Every structure is written in structure tokens, then in C-alpha cells.
């Protein structure tokens, strides 16, 4: 059986990490491991960025975006902000933040949104 789900994480060095998984659960779990590690590093040294004559606070920046793609148009993922916080989203061109329910983190919200049981 071919791997139906892809995880895509663009890297700051210009490369892109792409991996395939047989199940959506495996893809979400792998994305969570990768992005939690990145968020820990980013949270240690948040910094203000300046561009186009404007100052961007760490919480306004997307430091890393991890995406999942799959059958039937599945497009979802998690943004790691410049302060290390994470925001789940769905869609590609029009990314929509996942609204979190009580006591949910970005990962529980993402799992719920893509139809996986939350932990």
C-alpha cells in the first residue's frame, strides 16, 4: 500500500523536509514530534523582526509551518510562532485557524479537525 499522507516542513536553510506515512495518525504524530522540538528552541530566544518599515513581535511571526496533505483534499497543519506558541490550521491558500475547545492545545484541535480521536 502506498503512503497516502505527506508531512512537509520548510526549513530556514532553504531545504524542505518531506516524509510520507501510511496513516493520518502516523503523519500527525511525526509532525508533532518535529514541531515540538522546533518550538522549544524558538521559545528560548524570541526576537522582534523588522521588515517593510514595520516591527513584528514574536507572536505575530510564523517561524515554522508544518503541513499535512492527504487524500480527498486534506490540507492542515500547525504554525510555530516566533515566541514558540503553536496554532493549528486547515486549508492552504486560505488558512483558517482551528478554534480550540476547552483545555485543547493546537495538537488536540488539529486531531479533532482532521477526524482523529484526541488523546
* β-sheet strand percentage: 35-45%
Assembly state (oligomeric): single chain
Q: How far apart are the termini?
A: 27 Å
The chain-level structural class is alpha+beta
Number of domain modules: 1
What is the H/E order? EEHEEEEEEH
Percentage of residues in helical conformation: 10-25%
The number of E-state strands comes to 8
Q: How would you characterize the overall build of this protein?
A:
The chain has one domain (5-113). The strands form two sheets. Strands 2-1-5-6-7-8 form a six-stranded antiparallel beta sheet, covered by helices on one side. A two-stranded antiparallel sheet has the order 3-4. A hairpin with a 3-residue loop joins strand 5 (62-70) and strand 6 (74-81). With 119 residues, it is α+β, with helices and mostly antiparallel strands. The chain has two helices and eight strands; from the N terminus they run ββαββββββα.
Can I get a quick summary?
With 119 residues, the protein is of the alpha+beta class.
Primary descriptors:
alpha+beta, 119 residues, 8 strands, six-stranded antiparallel β-sheet
Topology:
Blueprint: E1 5-10, E2 16-21, H1 24-44, E3 49-51, E4 54-56, E5 62-70, E6 74-81, E7 86-90, E8 96-97, H2 106-113
